[in-house]
Amino acid sequence: MTQIITPDLCDEFPEVQVVAPGFNNYGGNKAFGGEIVTVKCFEDNSVVKEQVGQPGNGRVMVVDGGASRRHALLGDMLAEKAANNGWAGLIIYGCVRDVDEIGNTALGVQALGTHPRKSEKRGLGDLNVPVTFHGVTFHPGHYVYADNNGIVVSEKPLV
């Protein structure tokens, strides 16, 4: 894959949308990108758990967790499963846990922060619906690219 550098993508493709700052990089892969799959959930990672068990095919899961800072939506076991199943990464509008292990996993992970409490499991959540946070709407089938500089979104593949 071509190296992902979001400032270069912004320069070459000025039409990209740029997600407002506030995300931290936790994964072992500090730059990642791919086709978007969306999950909308709140303090319940049931759909995330289901999806990381499916073939990722180099896609990126964008999880709208409602910015909750009371539960983590991703931990080391799900991150490892995602990496093993070919996901490029996850962008979580919420928290993650087990960050030392996630940092050793061949997966891109960005989130708002960390929290040691696991999420609830009620089987709730929506898959592949448009989600909006930090000034950008993420549509399933569009593309997202992330690195230590930020996150950009495009309707078409850029790399």
Give your account of this protein's structure:
By secondary structure, this protein is an alpha/beta fold. Helix content is 17%, strand content 34%. It is built from four helices and twelve strands; from the N terminus they run αβββαββαβαββββββ. Strands 1, 2, 3, 4, 5, 6, 7, 8, 11 and 12 form a ten-stranded mixed beta sheet that branches. Strands 9-10 form a two-stranded antiparallel sheet. 43% of the residues are buried. The model has no long low-confidence stretch (mean pLDDT 97).
SSE diagram, text form:
Layout: H1 6-12, E1 17-18, E2 24-25, E3 32-40, H2 46-52, E4 60-64, E5 72-74, H3 76-84, E6 89-96, H4 99-102, E7 108-114, E8 126-127, E9 131-133, E10 136-138, E11 143-147, E12 150-154
Parallel strand pairs: 3-4, 4-6, 5-6, 6-7
Antiparallel strand pairs: 1-12, 2-7, 3-8, 3-11, 9-10, 11-12
Describe this structure in a few short sentences.
With about 160 residues, this protein is α/β, with parallel strands linked by helices. It is about 15% helix and about 35% strand.
